[in-house]
Amino acid sequence: MSSARPDISEIRQAWRDANLAPLWENARAHRPAPAPEPAHLWSWQKIRPLLSAAIDIASPDVVERRVLQLVAPKHQDEQRTSRTLAANIQILLPGEKARPHRHTMNALRFVLEGSGAITVVDGKPCPMEEGDLILTPAWTWHEHIHEGRAPILWLDALDVPFQQYVGTSAFESGPAAQLPETIPDAAFSLANVVPDLDYAAKDYSPVFRYPYAAAAAAVAAAPPARDGSRRVRYINPLTGGSGMAMMDCFLVQLDTGAFTLPFRTTASSVCCVVEGSGESQIGSNTVRWSKRDIFTLPQGNRIVHKSSGGAARLFQVSDRDLYARLGLLREEYGNISA
Ligand code: 1HN
After folding, report:
1. Ligand 1 centre and the CA of 138: distance in Å?
2. How far is ligand 1, taken at its centre, from the CA of residue 128, in Å?
């Protein structure tokens, strides 16, 4: 008697029981990359009243932070803004405080509306005025205190999705028993003179605050970058590298009427309109934007920006430097098919 042919359903069950799976039936294997994810716009005019609604519903006396997450349609399940970044809006009323804590996730604050708050980072008070960028890097203690006269709203951007993926998220409530040493900002008051210290000591900028007026003056004077926009990068003055390991920030100026050269990158960004209005072609979508709007530039899309009316300025937070250090950054300029 010849031996019976093996029964395929029995083999499948045996594979499952042994935690084995045939690669040739995996829909993701050996396929071209999926089409780039579409850009998403949060129009300030539309979301501003919805942000106000959080004021009565959540108080920082009770919840850790009064924050609404900007969840991109493609990332609903993970509640994130892009593959690596979580962008949120935080609101604080005059007299309110958001208590101190620290976490392994890097975070930044970019002020959208209001003034008069401070973020205290490892004991250093960082004033928050419109357009200011404040870093609260990995494992630094931070709290927010608002002594202004009107609500303040800022964009929070964090590397939460990336750190969840790599399994490094940790959190600790304050107050801090002991604060690490910091370097006074006065030691960095001249851009081309910095303290002579061990560069490798920390992988984030020792200066946490980047005031808008100075950044805006710098970008206005910057020569055009490869795509034709004027761009400045928010760096760590000790290394010339990105301000924090996982988030790389830029201020972009689009001069009146000019189009940028088409650009495509494997990195993703979240943009926030600081001044002016305009439109961006992002893949097959056209996003029309004005002051305080927030939109995504998901990886792989062909991107062209244009200001309408006068010059426009965009704040951009990206995972560009992270991808570059991992050997994953690919960038193209010019003749790119949509
Ligand atoms: C956080 O620590 C803050 O400190 C805001 O203001 C938003 C979202 C996820 C995890 C930590 C803050 C956050 C956050």
Report:
1. 11
2. 16
Give residues (CB < 6 A) around ligand 1: 65, 67, 88, 90, 98, 103, 105, 107, 142, 144, 156, 158, 160
Query: Cα(176)–Cα(113) distance, rounded to whole angstroms?
Result: 29
Q: Where are the domains positioned within the chain?
A: 35-331
Closest CA to 94 of 56, 149, 39: 149
Q: What is the DSSP string of 173-210?
A: ES--SSPPP---GGGGSSTT------GGG-SS-S--EE
- This model's pTM is above 0.70: yes
- Residue 65 Cα to ligand 1 middle (Å): 7
Q: Are 176 and 140 in contact (CB under 8 A)?
A: no
Chain centroid to CA 314: 13
Q: Which atom of ligand 1 is nearest to the CA of 143?
A: 4
Q: Is the peptide bond before 175 cis (omega within 30 degrees of 0)?
A: yes
| Ligand 1: centre distance to CA 47 (Å) | 20
The whole-number average pLDDT for the span 112-118 is 98
Fold of 35-331: Jelly Rolls (2.60.120)
Cβ–Cβ under 8 Å, residues 204 and 122: no
Beta bridge partners of 287: 280
Residue in 268, 290, 298 with CA at minimum distance from that of residue 46: 290
Give the closest residue to 99 by CA, choosing from 175, 208, 180, 179: 175
Q: How far apart are alpha carbons 20 and 210 in whole angstroms?
A: 52
pLDDT digits (tens, 9 = 90+) for 44-100: 999 999 999 999 999 998 899 999 999 999 999 999 999 999 999 999 999 999 999
